[in-house]
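Predict the assembly for these two chains.
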Amino acid sequence: MSEPRCVPSWLQEKTPAVAAVPVRKRSLKGGFVEKTLHAIAEVMKNEVFSESLASRQGLLQGLDPRAKLVSVLFLIGTVGLFHHIFPLVLFNLWLFWLAKSSRVPLGVFTKRVWIVVPLFTGILVLPVLFNVVRPGTPLLVLFHLSRPLTLGYWTIPAEVAITRQGLAAAALLMLRVGASVSLAVLLTLTTRWNALIKALGALRIPAIFLSVFEMTYRYIFLLLSASSDMFLARRSRLVGRAGPREERRFVTSAMGSLWCKTAALSEEVHGAMISRGYAGTPRSMLRFKMKLSDWAWIILVIFTAILFIGGDRVLG
Amino acid sequence: MSSVETAGAAPVFLLEGVTYRYPDGEIGVNNLDLSVGERERIVLLGANGSGKSTLLRILDGLIFPSDGLVHTFGQVLNEKSLSEEVFNYDFRRRVGFVFQNSETQLFSSTVWDEIAFGPLHMGMEEPEIRRRVSEVLELVGIEAIKDRPPFKLSGGEKKKVALAAVLATNPDVLLLDEPTAALDPRTERWLVDMLIQLGKFGKTIITATHHLDIVEEISDRVLIFGEDHRVAATGPPSELLSEKELLLHVNLIDPRFHKHSHGGDHRHYHIHD
């Protein structure tokens, strides 16, 4: 080994400051690389946020993950039994109370449930609102046609309107989906991912699936961090802004590089597992213990479900 | 190396003419003869890519020689012997490997699960696993992070967890690949002290490193690999580290590199302009 012998003269000179950018003057914001970096940072931020919520002292956080998982599945099943809107609204309010008791910020909870649900379920149930799809009592007439139109088996009435029955059916479905999503959001926000996976083991899900889930989750973050480093390294070396073609080329090569890293990593991880006695059958140990409060929670959930469904049946 | 290097005690590993070729034909280890005695502390020194990590993987039965034989605990170490349940169990229990990249080794979702992985897969009873995990957490000083996911730990914490995960199975032989790489001086000191302590408990410790400062503390014998993937020299650390020509020849040091002694046992190596 010897010291570098011939340092080129340009490397010995100080880089002068430029008065004007010698490339096209365009905003550096909004490029694909920036957007990807932003998206990766958002995923990481969400993970840190979920982790901090799961470790707060709250009603749901204090429960055994198995009790929580089973009760959430039971309540999601119960949601499907509601026939009326009013008890379902009350049930959703009860879920808001659960969120508040578990110290989940109501803004976050509402955003995750009641922005996503109308967006996706709303699109699905939109046609049901109109008498074009489902006949019913008109609530709001949208427009009139000169006469009913018949297209094969399908008839469009002369008066196209939003119906009472259609609106009720759509609201019922949205509230059911909203309640189910709320339960799933509450479960995932108040339970650490690893505890949730272990709780799935209590439902006799094969250990091999749980191992794969566990490791996928673990390595998603490692690979996200590797991608982020790759994108940051590119940003640090990029003077000005690359064109779309160059960005596409970078993204494809980054994907290839990440794929090779993943393959090498999986081999290494497998080696590390074998080295510590793994012989093809994953084993897992549950570290949970059901407390009196967990049993009390299960009784409360059953009682609540009976109360709501009973009320629903009283309405007819 | 033409003759078998023999240590005093009964050999834990005996390598005869071991050569390893990668799938593309490139040589990883070239015609190596080596005997590792029980309780021996060996350091593998060499430039990047000289074959140290490959040798550790061979010793851990993760890859197998293209030519030559590896004997361990009275058996030949190969795919066939490791497919036997009893030998596999015994070998994995007795040999622990701390990987260079801690990310590779920390695949469980919490530190506790990571440390429990080895004992669990070796079929220990649950109360024993709990006891071991708790004691290892205390020994390594990482009780406070036992419920945290390993990917959120610092580099030093990851290394501590990786070592704790291997120690939990109480291996007789410890293989360590660049254990001090990317550690801060305090964590590095902690690790060296831990290796010294483990050596006193009678563990056989084989460490691949570039870090010349720690070699004399953690080894009784040094193997220096040349860039031809052969062992260029072997002997006591104090002797070999004084042979500047040899270290230059294997491209391990720079001509300006030299040793300082500040009295007592401490010596360190650095560059002067």
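The longest helix of chain B spans residues 185-200. Chain B is about 35% helix and 25% strand.
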